């Protein structure tokens, strides 16, 4: 198979572990593919995308490019359409957009023993928050308490919840909270929350899924006590498995050849990167 080029784009991007994950998978699969990282701003995305030659076959997108990639995609999968966010572009005459974060979150939670929830709290209101809401709707969530610094940014999650059959309420980070089964933190990596806020959230927060993984532990996970804590590395791993399925065979759900060995090698690469 001829050499193909892929990359992860975002801003910032130096912390990304995606190149190590993809390189490990490509070695097991025997693919002579190149996967790099590139710092691209939201304002520079269209020009960067337009500069790619035909050797470029796919992109992984992280903050703040998921909405930009959504607009660039000619066709989109169901999760992308539901969330308004694309984290994977399969390039060609008509770029195809996918959201593999939803499945990545579900798999990461399952590995942490969280497979069924009724009530959740989501911290943040961006693209990952939308993916989190779709993910928990898929494992039974009926009510979601969204906490955001700006309530206007979270209004779209109310509409998304209505389409999913999940009742969504919006409040500030510091407001009192009823107990929930699971808290999903989708705040940017490095976010430092006041100790009082962390304590309030942890006391009624159930298990914690923290999408951030750099730096780790986050201030939130460090203050969560003895409860179940699932880091964003699990989501990163499993969403990348779906990306590689797409890059290789165009389908996020079709298993890779010897997928267990691929996942094992990818997991080992994360251990080496910590």
In order across it, which strands form the biggest sheet?
Answer: 2-1-3-5-6-4
CATH homology superfamily name of the largest domain: Leucine Dehydrogenase, chain A, domain 1
| Number of domain units | 2
The general outline is: globular
CATH architecture of the largest domain: 3-Layer(aba) Sandwich
CATH class of the largest domain: Alpha Beta
Residue share in helix: 25-40%
Largest sheet: 6 strands, mixed
Mean of residue pLDDT?
Answer: 94
Tally of alpha and pi helices = 11
Please provide the ordered H/E string of secondary-structure elements. EHEHEHEHEEHEHEHEEHEHEHH
Percentage of residues in strands: 15-25%
Low-confidence stretches: none
Q: According to CATH, what is the topology of the largest domain? A: Rossmann fold
Report, as a whole number of angstroms, the end-to-end distance.
32 Å
Keywords:
six-stranded mixed β-sheet, 274 residues, Rossmann fold, 2 domains, six-stranded parallel β-sheet
């Amino acid at each position: 198979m001829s050499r193909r080029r892929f990359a992860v784009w975002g801003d910032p991007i130096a912390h990304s572990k995606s190149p190590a994950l993809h390189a490990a998978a490509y070695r097991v699969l025997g693919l002579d593919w190149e996967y790099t990282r590139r710092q691209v701003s939201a304002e520079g995305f269209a020009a960067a995308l337009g500069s790619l030659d035909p050797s470029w076959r796919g992109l992984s997108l992280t903050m703040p490019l998921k909405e930009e990639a959504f607009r660039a995609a000619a066709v989109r999968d169901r999760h992308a359409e539901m969330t308004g966010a694309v984290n994977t572009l399969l390039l060609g005459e008509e770029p195809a957009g996918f959201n593999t974060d939803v499945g990545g979150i579900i798999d990461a939670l399952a590995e942490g023993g969280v497979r069924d929830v009724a009530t959740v709290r989501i911290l943040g209101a961006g693209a990952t928050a939308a993916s989190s809401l779709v993910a928990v709707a898929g494992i039974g969530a009926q009510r979601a308490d969204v906490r955001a610094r700006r309530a206007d940014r979270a209004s779209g999650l109310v509409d998304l919840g209505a389409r999913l059959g999940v009742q969504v309420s919006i409040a500030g980070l510091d407001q009192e909270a009823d107990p929930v089964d699971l808290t999903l933190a989708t705040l940017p990596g490095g976010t430092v929350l006041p100790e009082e806020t962390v304590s309030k959230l942890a006391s009624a927060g159930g298990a914690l899924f923290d999408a951030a993984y750099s730096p780790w532990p986050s201030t939130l996970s460090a203050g969560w006590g003895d409860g179940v804590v699932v880091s964003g590395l699990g989501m990163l791993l499993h969403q990348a498995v779906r990306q590689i399925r797409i890059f290789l065979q165009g389908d996020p759900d079709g298993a890779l050849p010897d997928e267990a060995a691929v996942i094992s090698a990818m997991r080992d690469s994360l251990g080496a990167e910590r």
